[in-house]
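Q: A reviewer asked whether we had any structural model of the full assembly, not just the individual parts. We don't, so I'm hoping you can provide one. Inputs are below.
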Amino acid sequence: MFLERGNSVEAPAAILLENLSKVYDLPPGSAGAAQAVAADNLNLRIAEREVFGLVGPNGAGKTTTLKMICGLLVPTAGRIVVNGVDVERDPEAAQGGIGYLADFFSLYDDLKVWEYLDYFAHAYKMAPETIAGRITDVLRLMGLEGKRGAFIGALSRGMKQRLGIGRAIIHDPPVLVLDEPAVGLDPKGRIEFRQLVHELNGRGKTVLITSHLLHDLEEMCTSIAIIEKGRLLRSGRLEQILGEGVRERRVRIMVASPGFPLVEWLSRREGVTGVTGAAPIGAQFSFAGGPSELASLVKALVVAGASVYAVEPVGETLEKVVMGLSRGEVT
Amino acid sequence: MAAQAFVLVLGGGLLSLLAIQREKEMNTFDFQRVTRLRPLELAFGKLFGAPVLMYFIVLCLMPAALVGAVVGHARPTFVVAAYVVVVLGAISIHALALLLSLLLERGVAVTGGVLFLIVLWLNPLVAAKFWLDLGSLSPFLASDLSTQMTWAVMPRPPGTTIYMSGGYGMTDVLFGWPVHHAAVVVVLYASFAAWFLLAVVRNIKRDPAGYEIFTPAQALGFLLFINLIFIGFFRWSRWSASEAQADLLGLNTSLCFVLGVALLRNRDRVRRLYARGRLSSGWLAAAWPAPYLGAGTLVVGLVPVAILQVIGKLDGEWDLGVALFRVALFSAWLLRDILYLQWMNLRRGGRLRVGLLYLAVFYICAGIVFGTLNLFGTPRGLAFTAVLMPPAVFSLRLGAWAETWDAWLVALCAQILIAGIFGSLQRRTLADLSAPGRLPIAAAGAA
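A: Here is a predicted structure for the entire assembly that you could use as a starting point for your response.
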C-alpha cells in the first residue's frame, strides 16, 4: 500500500518515530545540566526498502534511539511504530519484524556456528522444518559456509561480526537495526560489509544503521538523518542532504597548457568566486551560473588558448555536511 | 539425598543468581529480549536452563540414593515425596535467585543470594519455631522426610515444638487442623515459586529503568498471602492476645517494608507518567505509595485484631483501643520511612541505597542513645523513644498505656507530621521534575 501526499506517492513507512523523547539523569556531580536528552521530540519516517543512516557524534542519542525502536528502552514520551505495530503496545509482535545488532556484543563462544543460529531461529519461533534450510541460506549469505561446524570462539572478529548479522536476519525480518556494525572491521571487512548491506537491501530489507564511518554510510545509504544531543538536525535523501545549502556549484577544471594563467583568468570572469589552484595544472572555483553559463565559460577558456581536458563538479561529502551542521546548529 | 539437595539447591541457586547477570555483562541479554520469546518462555528457559548441569548431577547421584533407600528399608512413598520436596524447593529457590539476578547488581545479588542460601541450609537448626506451628521450610528437610515411616498426623500437646522433637510425625497445624508437613511445604514451594516467577515474568523483557517487581495490587496480594501463612500457622495457643498481636506486627514489619520499597517510583518512571499525562501535580502524587502501603499495613494489622476478638482468647492485658493504637502507629511508622525513601529515590541520581544506609545508621544510633539513657526501661521513656523508634509500640503494655497514653499519642502525631514533611519534600521534587524545560516539549503541555 502506498500513501499519497499531494501529487507524490510515498512508500509505506517501515519505521515511524512520532515526537519521540528520552530524558535521563546524569550522575550526581556531573558538570552542567542535571539531565541529558537522548532524544528530543524526534520525528522520523523511514520508508520501506531504505538504507537509512543515523549520523551524529558520540552521545548524540543514536544508540538510545535504536534501542527504543527495538523495544529495549521505553521512551519518556512519543510513539514508535515498526511495520505498522506500536512498539510499546505490542513489543513482541514488533520485535518479530526487527533484526538487531548491538554496538558492542559477545557471542556464545562455546557454541558452534550453526548451533548459535539454530538457537535464535527457535527463539524467533520459526517453523522447525524451515530452520535447517534457513541456516544454510544465512551462512551462505554471510560467507560462513565453511565455518558451519566451527566453535564461535575460534572465529575472527570479522567473522563474528558477520555471524552477529546472520543472527539478526535469521528470522528474515523486514527491518534491520544495526548499531555501529563496522566497528573493528579491517578495510576488506568493511567493503564486504557494504556489499552485504546492499545485498540485504536488494532482498527487500529496510536497514537502519549508525556509524561513525561517514564515508561508508555515504556509499551505503539512500537516506540519512543527522542528530545531535537528541535533536534532529537534518533528514532526507542522501543526495538531497549533500546538495542542500550549496547555492553555488563547485567546479574543478584541469588544463594541459603549462604557463597558462588559469587562476588569474578565472578570477576575472563573472560569476566565478573562490578560485584556488589545483595540481598539476588546474583550478577549483565556485560558479554561480547554470549549466549553459558553465558551458560558455569553458568555451571561452578554450578560445583563450587553454587545452581543457577535464571539467568536473566537486560534490559535498557527508563528513563536511555533518561537520557544518554540527558546528552551526548545536552549541 | 542430602548431597543431591545440596547440589541442586545451592549449586543451582548460584548458577541462577549468575544467569541473567552474566548475559547482561556479555551484552547478549538484549538479543534474547528482542526475540519473539514471550516473557514466560524466557523465564522458564532461564529457570530450568541455568541450573541444568545440577539437575544432571542429581540424576547421576540418584541410583546411589535409591540403593541406599532400599538398603535402609525406606518407604518408597517417602522417597518419592523427598524428591518432590527437593525439586520443588529448588525451583522456588532458583526462581528467587533469578529474580535477584534480574533486579540487582551482580555483587549485591550474589552476596544476598549466597547469604540466603546459607541461612536456608542452616534452617533446620535455627528454624523459628516459636511463633508458627510450621516445620522447616528448607528443602534440606528431604533427608528427614525420606526416613519417615508414617503419613499419620497427630495433634501435638500445646507448647511442644515441631516434628523434630519426635513422636508426633511431621505434623504442622493449620488453622487448628493437623496437616502433614510434606504437603504443606509442597504447596508453599509451589506458591512461592509462582510469586517469584510472576515477578521475573513481569520484568524480564522490560527496560531496566522501568522494573516494577509487582503491580501495587499484586504486591498487596503477596502481602496478604504471606499473612495468610502467618495467621494460618500462628501458635495462638502459646501466646496471650496482646503478645500475639505484637508478634504478628513484628513478623510483618520487614514484609511491609519490602512491599513499600517495591512500590517506590524512580525518576524515569515519574517522567514517563508526567509525559503521558498520567500523573497529577498535587498531594496525591506526593503521597505515593501511601495509599497502597497504608491499606496493606492496616489490613495485616487489623485482621489479627479481629481474629483475636472473635476467638475470644483475651487476657487481662488485652484492650481493643490499645490494639488499634498499635496498628495505627505501626502503619504511620512504615509510611514515614517509605515516604522518606520515596523522596530519596526521586532525588537526582536515585539515592535509594544512600537512603537505606542513612535509615540503618539512624536506627542504630537512636537505639544506642536511648539504650544508654535507659529510656526503654520506663513507660514514659518508652513512649518518648517511639517518636523516633516506633517499634517500641510492640512492647507497649496496658498498664503503661494508662499512664502514658498522651505521650504515645504525641508519638503517633509525630509520625504523621514527619510523613507529611517527606510528602512535602517529595512534592517539591516532583514539581522540579515536571517544571517547564525539564520534560519533553510535547509532554510538558500534557503534564
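A: Points you may want to mention in the reply: Residues 13 and 47 of chain A are 4 Å apart (CA to CA). The longest strand of chain A covers residues 13-25.
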